[in-house]
Amino acid sequence: MPATPPVSARERARASFTADLLAAARTRIAAEGAAELSLRAVARDLGVSSSAVYRYVDSRDALLTLLIIEAYDEVGTVVETAAASATAADPPADPGTTWLAVGRAFIGWAREHRHSFELVYGTPVPGYAAPPDTVVHATRVWAVLGATVAAAAQRGELGPAALDGVAHGLMSTEMIDAAVRLVGGPVAGPAVPRELVENLVVRTVPLFTTLLGATTAELFGHLHGMTDDHDALLDAVLAAAGASVGLRVPLGGG
Amino acid sequence: MPATPPVSARERARASFTADLLAAARTRIAAEGAAELSLRAVARDLGVSSSAVYRYVDSRDALLTLLIIEAYDEVGTVVETAAASATAADPPADPGTTWLAVGRAFIGWAREHRHSFELVYGTPVPGYAAPPDTVVHATRVWAVLGATVAAAAQRGELGPAALDGVAHGLMSTEMIDAAVRLVGGPVAGPAVPRELVENLVVRTVPLFTTLLGATTAELFGHLHGMTDDHDALLDAVLAAAGASVGLRVPLGGG
DNA sequence: CTTTAGCGAGAGCAATGCTCGCGCATGCGC
DNA sequence: GCGCATGCGCGAGCATTGCTCTCGCTAAAG
Fold this sequence. Notes:
The structure is a homodimer. The first copy, chain A, is mostly helical. The first copy, chain A, folds into two domains: 1-57, Orthogonal Bundle (Arc Repressor Mutant, subunit A); 64-245, Tetracycline Repressor, domain 2 (Orthogonal Bundle). The first copy, chain A, contains eleven helices and no strands. The first copy, chain A, has helices at residues 9-32, 39-46, 50-53, 60-87, 95-112, 114-121, 133-154, 164-167, 173-184, 194-219, 230-244. In chain A, helix 4 crosses helix 6 and helix 10 (194-219) runs antiparallel to helix 11 (230-244). Chain A starts with 8 loop residues before the first helix and ends in a 10-residue tail after the last helix. At the A-B interface, helix 8, helix 10 and helix 11 of A face helix 8, helix 10 and helix 11 of B. Chain A binds a DNA duplex through helix 1, helix 2 and helix 3.
């Protein structure tokens, strides 16, 4: 049930081939990493000449960009699902537990899709700056983290944080606007004070950088030889970060 | 005053050329990034043929490894200096302030030497795992962080942390041994209980992952458009991390 | 039915990492 | 002081990459 009738046969063929192309590239990246991705190689995998690929994608970097967007959406879905099933549990998880679940899910995704993680959160590929089309997809993880902090605030469970003193006037107005839109949701409930929203936004930053830093350290070997139980160590890092922004993260005894 | 007499002229020439080679590679990396480093290009810069370079270095990756070690030592020196001048100030900085200074120095180094940061903390280059020769140099940053936490403990200024409950039995014995050696120092003072040392080691982990995550986020554009004052936001992240492991970080009115 | 637009293939260009064989010169052992 | 061996630099060459261009063919559009 396509929105527009089966369009032309050509367009269908084109879409189909593009999908195959992306799939092949994804496979090669999973096997060898983004830096090794060779357009000629995926062309060979597909049984077409290398020049034919250029009918469907502008350049190697453009192909990478497509895959970056895919990866952002993938991890976005993973953390959204983790957060959703935490809050949908019976009894619903408190925000601290949700944060822990989200963090574990993020790290788990990165472990399973190392090269996708590298693609989006690792060293940017040589020449290009992240195209603007990617930022929308990148925000999904941020949104989940922000929602968790906001939920804690709403339940009155948010403790004080070391950053409270400097949070005011820190974020750009655009950022706060975006956050207000998220918190307010589609319905216009009682207005949430901007200062509170800003404070919540600032609190999500350490959560994000912790996710990024912990996962990078884990995957890139900076924790090598330090422990036999990486999961437990990462849990400790997550717990510390959660506590630092006022979440109560239950560790150990469960 | 060489330790061994001027050795042979050949050896001196070899050492000299190797130094030139590294310098040229360093320059090119600073200009274009590690991924773009071309052996042929540095050969051209040096006015020799590309094949001549292979007399001095096994491969492109081996050259990268040499530069990785240099970069580790560079950042190690930077953070050591920052910590030293903080504690040497009058009055000496408390551990929380030292941590802030160390964090700022780390981020500052990364900003000034973006490509060096990418080299050591970014996505590992394609095929190879970090050669064991690099780990010794990598520990210097860890040592500074650990010493800061240890100093706070010694002064009785270390607050409780969310990870206290799970810290025991977390780290490998080798890791704790290494830390004991560091804390004990060259002289054999009163024995520090291993459990305390382990707790201190676990506390340095969030500090390191915060450094890594905050710097990665900053340099790789994940904080884009969120604030106009990146320094202040990063300070907030550092403060949160410090507080989460029991350091008192004075921010704002400081 | 004719024209036009899309598409695939192959050759080709400028690079890359790395190997190999050739000569030259330097320095060590005799 | 001399001769051989070793170190060294060079150029050619191979396989690979991203990307461009031209040539036909085929299928859609008018």
